[in-house]
């Protein structure tokens, strides 16, 4: 709004610090794929893997991250009322503890450490989008919300790049390396960076949090940092600056007239909140049912097809690396087109992914490996350029903190289920059949966005609150 000068450096710095949680999420979800064989062999030689079947062992270790995230996405709702900034600081410390526990070569330490990291990942899915939405001025519509996914794919990219320093699993005595500890500890540096920045540099919570707590001093302090010329002694400036926030939350009034800053979980399914919750849960489900895991799984198969030993290991790492690059570029593209509006981006992204996935379903019946690789990378680009980042930014605009928590929980449940049954689905349906199944979900997703989802671009908080009321 004219007359108010945004301190873009400070706002971007706050958003970046919050989004480091998604960097930690992206790294945690992806990095173990590069270590699973080496870790299993080390446990066999120097400890006890407990689970002697390597495939089951890998499934358990991979699944514990989204499993812990389910718990974290729910439990964080009890911490958020004490402050978004405070929640992020606690999560960064917990993440460091989780990383530290995994450095000890023991099955149970790996399991517990990764479960703690997963807990933090689920919690970050709630807190970080909420934090960014609540500090976003109208002069920066849409852009800051995409930053979460950008940092997430950056975390994935790091997790696919750093393993190149490791020996390949097929190499003799590869299980003797200790380099894996460096890569296991690596994300703790970013968790420590997040904690330090929140402790020393970004020492205030969001304006919305201070409003709900009726903390006038805290509100004035953070507004002076977001707006260079904010004057807390001038009532007109206060009113203007408040209206200039995308997310202005006033304490909700209950039926008995009492004010309540955050609706309880049971209230989310009452008439007032039911429709936006329905939209958020559906988008969170389509986010995982769209086929991103199926495409990545299929891509790894294509890269290693017909290769054995070290050649297969090299091809797998290179293929995974390029998938990471593609996801990174897709999210970077979304930052450029973010002004189009989240609904528009999700709609066109879903439609184009539907076309690509249908094409992959047909072409995988006949081979054409190079074409499949190009199509898979294009799909990953589109996913990370549309519903991938827009889910969290959009839901943060239309939902409360507890609503975000529930959406994150649903998303992580689907993540766990898809990850657990992807192999069985491929065996039962073949890759082609699985692509067609996911294309069916994408068709429903496209129609859902077209006819149900509403655009949030340029709307004030009061308009967002009324968006699904009719």
Automatic annotation (TrEMBL):
Quaternary structure and partners: Homodimer.
Keyword annotations from UniProtKB, A to Z: Membrane, Transmembrane, Transmembrane helix
GO cellular component, one term: membrane
Stated name of the protein: Hexose transporter 1
Family classification: Belongs to the major facilitator superfamily. Sugar transporter (TC 2.A.1.1) family.
Organism name: Euplotes crassus
Domain Major facilitator superfamily (MFS) profile: from-to ranges: 14-457
Catalyzed chemical reaction(s): D-fructose(out) = D-fructose(in); D-mannose(out) = D-mannose(in); D-galactose(in) = D-galactose(out); D-xylose(out) = D-xylose(in)
Pfam families noted in UniProt: Sugar_tr (PF00083)
Locations listed in the record: Membrane
Entry keyword annotation includes Oxidoreductase: no
Membrane topology: Multi-pass membrane protein
Coiled-coil regions, chain positions: none
TM annotation in the entry: 9-32, 56-79, 86-105, 111-132, 144-166, 178-202, 275-298, 318-338, 345-368, 374-394, 406-426, 432-453
MF terms (GO), sorted A to Z: carbohydrate:proton symporter activity
